[in-house]
Each structure stands twice: as structure tokens, then as C-alpha cells.
Amino acid sequence: MPHICRNCKRTFSTELELELHRDTCSAGQLYCDECGDRFTERAATEDGWHYRCPNDDCDGAGIDDDIHKVSDARVTKQ
Question: Contact, 62 vs 51, CB < 8 A?
């Protein structure tokens, strides 16, 4: 059974390959309310506790303040 990255839709033959890919997936697991960019967790934090938007022109910071997990986002119909 293939393992599929839900961000970029790449497929991997093992769950371990998928987990390793998630750390560097360019589609990203986080997004910023301030600028709307998506990025990887690795790009947003150096210590795993403090998060900032990696976009130089953005002041977004803080998990669940300005920065959210894509998996937590909800789609709404207009």
C-alpha cells in the first residue's frame, strides 16, 4: 500500500519514507494568517517551541496565534 503525502501528493513505499519526507516537504504543514504562505515546520522554528513566519516581509508568529497547522484548517463554502 503506498503512503501519500497529503501536502504535495508524492507517494512513498514505506511509512518511514513518508515521515522523513514530511520534515522537508516544500508544500509545508503550516500556514500563516498574516501573509497566507505555507511552509515546513523546520523553516518556522529553530528550537521547536518558538515559531515565526519564515517570510522576511511578514511579522506572523506563534503557533495557534498567527501560524496554524494545515491539517487543522477547515474549508468553508461561500
Answer: yes
Closest CA relative to residue 21, chosen from 40, 38, 35 = 40
How far is it, in rounded angstroms, from Cα 65 to Cα 44? Answer: 13
Closest to 36 (Cα-Cα) out of 73, 77, 11, 2: 73
Count CB-CB contacts under 10 A for residue 32: 23
pLDDT of residue 38: 84
pLDDT band with cut points at 50, 70 and 90 for residue 27: low
Give the chain's mean pLDDT.
85
51 versus 7: which is more confidently predicted?
51
Write out the three cell numbers for 13.
Answer: 513505499
What is the 3-state secondary structure of 33-55? CCCCCEECHHHHCCCCCCCECCC
